[in-house]
Amino acid sequence: MSIELAEAIKEIKSLAAMMDPDNDFLTIAEAEEKIKASRAEREKEIEEAHSNLKSTLSKILEAAKQSATRPKSVPSEEAHAAAVNELDNSRISLAKSISDAQNTLASQEASGDVYSVPPENGQSQAEYTRELWKLAST
C-alpha cells in the first residue's frame, strides 16, 4: 500500500506544478465578468424590444381608436336615418306630383282641352319633356 501512496504523492506533486490557483481564479473571474456583461446586454436588448413593442402597440391602439371613431363629416346614425326618411318622403311626394300631373294631362287630352304634340325633328326626348313641363307650369 505504501507503493501506491508514494505513487499518488508523486502524481499529486506533478499535477500541483501544472495547477496555478491564481490563474484559475483569474479565468473564473473573467468568465463571470463576461457572463455579467452578456446578461446586462441581453437585458438591455430585451428592454429595448419591450419598449419598441409598447410603442408600436400604442400607435396601433391609437390608430384603431381613430378608425373606430365616427368622423365629424359623417352624420350620426339618427341624423342619417332622418335624412333617409326625408329623402324617401320627398321621393314619394314627387312621385305623387308626377302621377297627379300625368292624370291631369290624360284627362285634359281625353276632354280635348290639350292634345299631344310630337317632338320636333332633332329634339331629344329630354328636351321635349322639359318643354312640356314649362308649358304645364305656365
UniProtKB/TrEMBL annotation:
What is this protein identified as? Uncharacterized protein
Name the source's superkingdom: Eukaryota
Bias-annotated ranges (Polar residues): 101-110
Annotated region described as Disordered, given as residue ranges: 101-129
